[in-house]
Amino acid sequence: MEKHLEVSDQTSCLNKAHHNEPLFVLRAQDRTAAEVVRYWVYLASGGVPHLFHLPKDLSEKQVGALKVAREMESWPDRKHPD
Q1: Which of 2, 3, 23, 54 is 20 to 30 Å from the Cα of 11, by its Cα?
Q2: What are the residue ranges spanned by the domains of the chain?
Q3: pTM of the model
Q4: Which pLDDT tens digit goes with each residue over 3-55?
Q5: HEC states along 45-60?
């Protein structure tokens, strides 16, 4: 999701987080971000780390995460994390 949409949507993950809840944000400029998102989808779908294979029955949230991963890969000016 784009930053401005995430911030303005009161039902977004960011806005649903508790005031003092720790968060970890991945930005599209980070070359590792898309791969990390895909790995999260894999683990969230019940995957076993040594058997990297996505099931066909992903949740709407997981499908959305894969879409974001594709968008991250097309982001210009990607770099290795600082």
Answers
A1: 54
A2: 3-73
A3: 0.80
A4: 888 888 888 888 899 999 999 999 999 999 999 999 999 888 887 666 666 76
A5: CCCECCECCCCCCCCH
